[in-house]
Design a protein that fits this description.
Helix content: 10-25%
Shape: globular
Largest sheet: 6 strands, antiparallel, barrel
Number of strands: 12
Number of helices: 6
Strand order of the largest sheet: 1-2-5-4-3-6
Order of helices and strands: EEHEEEHEEEHEEEHEHH
């Protein structure tokens, strides 16, 4: 489990493979110092398993399923990545509950300065937007954010200067693709109050 609070801005050192799967080498010395093989780490909001450690670098394998459902298939060496190790018992839940399971890929429509921060409008599929509410939570590239506004086919988030500086979101441009994960609580609520849940209660 994650919280959507990015702990380190890492970078892709190497990438091998193709559509049948890739092996990533990610420079993330702070995370690598605490990690062991088998740990879960979120990269741009995608939960992956540490398969190797070499100094300040971590190794990960991404299978075709992961590549097809996220932006990881378009990675290249040198790109920055949002890195968050899994939440440990006793640590504060600073953002919201994030699983690292991408629900869809969104497309940045606009990026507008707002004081020292920015407002980003993101186009998303109906199956993602159905779980979005104003002032609700959503993870964008693994970053826990609050939905500031909703439209027919987009949602908007407002970013503070710290988020722009400490994550990859500060480099987003119109047309960029981003990993999206909705608040899992909304999914459980839908399941519980849906037709099957009602019938099961008699």
């Amino acid at each position: 489990m994650f919280t959507g609070i990015v702990r380190e801005l890492g970078s892709v050192e190497a990438l091998d493979g193709g559509k049948d799967g890739i092996r990533l080498r990610v420079h993330a010395p702070e995370t690598a110092a605490r990690a062991v093989v088998g740990d879960s780490v979120a990269l741009n909001g995608v939960c992956l398993t540490v398969t190797g450690i070499d100094g300040g670098a971590l190794f990960f394998d991404a299978v075709p399923e992961t590549l097809s459902r996220s932006t990881l298939g378009s990675l290249r060496a040198g790109l920055a990545m949002n890195v968050e190790p899994a939440l440990r018992a006793g640590e504060p839940l600073g953002g919201h509950i994030v699983q690292g399971h991408v629900d869809g890929v969104g497309h940045v429509r606009t990026v507008e300065p707002e004081g020292e921060g920015a407002r980003i409008e993101i186009e998303a599929a109906p199956e993602v937007l159905r779980y979005c509410v104003e002032k609700g939570s959503i993870a964008v590239e693994g970053v826990s954010l609050t939905v500031a506004a909703l439209a027919k086919d987009t949602f908007t988030v407002a970013l503070i200067p710290h988020t722009l500086a400490a994550t990859t979101l500060g480099a987003l441009q119109p047309g960029d693709d981003v990993n999206l994960e909705v608040d899992v609580v909304a999914k459980y609520v839908e399941r519980l109050i849906g037709p099957r849940g009602v019938y099961d209660q008699g």
